Automatic annotation (TrEMBL):
Residues 18-155 form the DUF2062 domain. PANTHER family: E3 UBIQUITIN-PROTEIN LIGASE. This is DUF2062 domain-containing protein. InterPro entries: DUF2062. Keywords: Membrane, Transmembrane, Transmembrane helix. It holds the Pfam family DUF2062.
Length: 190
C-alpha cells in the first residue's frame, strides 16, 4: 500500500474523526486524559481485550472522559500494542525474576504444537504484570505531553461561539425597557 493510497484511509479513519471531536468543543483536560487513557489501555498485551477495557473505563469514568477520544486513541494504538508486547514481557520477567521466555523459531514450534503451554501462560502473565507496572507511568507521561497539544488543537479548531458578545451590527441597539407581567418590551433602533 503506497502513500497516495494510504492517505484517504488515514483521513477517513483518523484525521476526520479527530477534527469532528475538536469541532464539537471538547475540553482540553478531558481530551488529553481521554486520549492518554485510550492509548494506555490500547497497548494492553492481550489482543482483542482493549476495546472491552476502554468500554469499562468509559462506563466507570462517565462524563470525566470523552468516549469517542478514548476509542479513537485505542484504534490508533493497535500497531503500538504489537510492538510493546515483548518489552512488557521482559519487564514482567525482570520483576518476578522468572525465566526468560525464548522468542525463537523453536519456541514458536513448541507453542504451535502445544508443548510449551505452561511457558506461554507464564509469559502472558509476565507481560500482564509488565503492563500493570508500566501503565500508570505511561498514562501520566502521555497526559503531560498531550495536555499542551490538546489545548492548542482545541483552541485552533474550536467552533465559533453561537452567541457573540458584540452586537452583530454597529447600527443595532437593543435596550430592555421594563418587565411587565412576564412580557418584555424591546426597543430596536436601526
Amino acid at each position: 500500500m503506497g502513500i497516495p493510497r494510504f492517505m484517504p484511509w488515514f483521513n477517513k479513519k483518523i484525521t476526520d474523526p479527530l477534527l469532528l471531536i475538536l469541532r464539537r468543543g471538547a475540553e482540553p483536560n478531558q481530551l488529553a486524559l481521554s486520549v492518554a487513557l485510550g492509548l494506555t489501555l490500547g497497548v494492553f498485551p492481550i489482543f482483542g481485550v482493549t476495546v472491552f477495557l476502554c468500554g469499562l473505563a468509559i462506563a466507570l469514568l462517565g462524563s470525566r472522559c470523552h468516549a469517542p477520544s478514548v476509542m479513537l486513541a485505542n484504534f490508533i494504538s493497535a500497531p503500538i500494542e504489537l510492538s510493546l508486547v515483548v518489552p512488557f514481557l521482559r519487564l514482567g520477567e525482570v520483576i518476578t525474576g522468572g525465566s526468560h521466555f525464548p522468542l525463537t523459531t523453536d519456541a514458536l514450534k513448541k507453542v504451535l504444537t502445544g508443548k510449551a503451554s505452561h511457558e506461554v501462560l507464564l509469559s502472558i502473565l509476565h507481560a500482564l504484570l509488565g503492563w500493570l507496572v508500566a501503565s500508570p507511568f505511561i498514562l501520566a507521561v502521555l497526559y503531560v505531553i498531550l495536555l499542551p497539544c490538546s489545548k492548542f488543537l482545541v483552541h485552533k479548531f474550536a467552533p465559533l461561539p453561537s452567541s457573540p458578545k458584540k452586537p452583530l451590527s454597529p447600527f443595532t441597539d437593543i435596550r430592555l425597557k421594563k418587565m411587565d407581567a412576564g412580557w418584555m418590551n424591546v426597543n430596536l433602533k436601526m
